[in-house]
Design brief:
The chain is an alpha/beta fold and about 240 residues long. The chain has helices at about 1-25, 60-75, 90-100, 120-125, 155-170, 180-185, 200-205, 215-235, and strands spanning about 25-30, 35-45, 60, 80-90, 110-115, 130, 135-140, 195-200, 210-215.
């Protein structure tokens, strides 16, 4: 009997380890509040419809979307912690993940570690509350495609429409102003041979993109607070 329990425990641990290795996710429940938290990571480049080289560290959106749907449907999950360290990637896929995170009924908190660049910005602001470590960076720049010069009006219009989608999402899920964001996107004085702006730690908070500067301790504290408020609200129903 004891041997069977040990085997089951080993199998459970192996499943957890595999989830971390393959998908960067883990269920957290050993806390004083007895909250069940699903931790997800957006790391490296966000892979979309095209497969990236095997040497590139990627987050595959076809892995993240089903997991988020499972979280919404799972009554045992109380909240979500989203850890971000991404250079950006596929715009459509990044927006799809951000929209799904924003529509979750469970409390959500994001934490920017290292950086959350390009399409990583909408992902960082898609949660109920967002944090960034003091050395964390966010890069805001126009939509582009491999440095291609836009020479046709329909192509320009398409890029402009996509850029407006990103601006509208960011401004509607943060305190940042859309016109100010567009100005930061078109900044010519910071990135060599490119447009855009780099915001570090507190600067991202000052611009209204991120709610607070802080690490994992403050992110967890905020998430537990949101979960407890959500539980109290549901109990009153």
């Amino acid at each position: 009997m004891a041997e069977k329990k040990e085997q089951e425990a080993a199998e459970t641990q192996e499943k957890k380890n595999e989830a971390i290795r393959e998908f960067g996710e883990i269920e957290l429940k050993n806390n004083p509040q007895d909250d069940r938290i699903s931790m997800l990571t957006i790391i490296g480049e966000i892979e979309g419809h095209d497969c990236l080289p095997a040497t590139t560290k990627t987050t595959k959106y076809e892995h993240v979307l089903p997991k988020l749907a499972e979280i919404e449907d799972n009554q045992d999950v109380d909240g979500v912690l989203l850890l971000l360290n991404t250079v950006g990637g596929d715009v459509e896929s990044g927006l799809a993940i951000a929209e799904l995170v924003a529509s979750l009924s469970k409390p959500t908190v994001s934490l920017v570690l290292g950086g959350s660049h390009s399409i990583g910005v909408p992902l960082a602001v898609s949660t109920d509350c967002s944090f960034i470590v003091p050395s964390g960076t966010m890069v805001i720049h126009p939509v582009r495609m491999s440095g291609t010069v836009i020479g046709a009006q329909p192509t320009y219009d398409y890029f402009k429409q996509m850029q407006n989608r990103i601006l509208n999402f960011i401004s509607s899920h943060s305190k940042a102003d859309a016109q100010r964001l567009e100005k930061l996107m078109m900044n010519t004085g910071m990135l060599t041979k490119d447009l855009g702006t780099i915001l570090v730690g507190e600067e991202a908070v000052q611009e209204g993109l991120i709610d607070e500067v802080g690490g994992v301790d403050r992110a967890f504290a905020k998430l537990h607070d949101l979960i407890q408020k959500n539980k109290a609200f549901n109990d009153k129903k």
